[in-house]
Fold this protein.
Amino acid sequence: MLSAIFFMNQKGDVLISRVYRDDVNRGIVQAFRSYILDAKEIRSPIKSIGTTTFLHIRVENIYVVAVTKQNVNACVVFELLYQLVKLFEAYFQKVNEEAIYNNFVLIYELLDEVLDFGYPQNCGKEILQKIILQGNAKFTEKEQQDNISKLTVRVTGAISWRNPEIRYKRNEIYIDVIESVNLLMSAKGTVLSSDVSGQIILKAALSGMPECTLGMNDRAGGGKRGDAAAIAAGAAGAAAAKKRPGSGIAIDDFSFHHCVRLTKFDAERVISFIPPDGEFELMRYRTAENINLPFKVLRNIKEVGHTRLEINLTVQATFPPQLYATNVKIRIPVPKNTAVCRIKTGSGRARYMAEFDAILWKLRRFPGNARFVLEAEVDLMHTTSGEKKAWSRPPIAMEFQVPMFAASGLQIRFLKVVEKSHYNAIKWVRYITKAGSYQYRI
């Protein structure tokens, strides 16, 4: 995969390097220095020179450069480089030229453990700190002997991300379903694009080595009901289920944490995993079908002559009345030559923000099914004929958060936790929908 990794300063001097294959040598950095560092502008983190490809990131005044002769996955390489930087920060807090000079022996040891013949092996700092005892990883002699005895199992085993000796007095697992709604609505009321990007965040406080099985209402499977009564599904999920009876949601893209057994998901459409301890992202997903938009905006903006603008804006919440949105912000654009804004609204606070050329309307709490109206009269300054330009009419943009609402209709139908000590885990589920790029053209 990778032929070499170089750490260079801004002048192009090599601070430390590790060559993994014989197809390159240290002299190859001269090409990187000439084509990249000496260039007036760095337009891309990837540069191919002949048959050699350079992929680099910059951390403070340090360039971390990966060199390869193969057609590698660029995303994997960049993820590796960023993980290396995080790993170094875990050992010596800051990655700069001085830190590299002071810790070059430790860096060589880490590079040898993380990569083998240019292939990534293990970037988990919990495991590496048990192998490399420099830096922040300090253990007593007894702990070191215990770690050495467990080292082979932990590094080469299938579950390197969890210690089987973890113990809690109270076994709990928290699930957060966080979704971002993206919308672009035309001036005529036609949906130009809409999608939901979501992630499922878990926080596990479980003893031992628990086997967890999670089921959702995705269209391909949905899973069995199991102990669904133990999970509070959320009012929004129930509303979405009523809207589309008898069918789950269509999820376009999946991305899982490495603890998930992908073969079981493909066969049974349930997510089976042994969770890492603490908080982690179990899954990312995206869907573009049957999205339940939380807000509808009715807008009427009229230009009266050349010196006046009338704005009438109605915002309607479409989620159930028992829910409410928080931190709602609506940015209504106005022309650059705005002189005075007279604003009238029945709820929240609205004011003209000259630095944004917009009226900013803030509502701390927005109940479900509620409707609020804003009216504004905008006086415009006279401009000379040479300065007069047509107003570009930027879109109205919204920001919000709606707890216990899932715009995609996704529901956590069940979560089973099985461990050999047979404890009963307490399970919590929370849904949050927030605005991504939520815009209405005018």
Notes: DSSP finds eight helices and 23 strands in the chain.
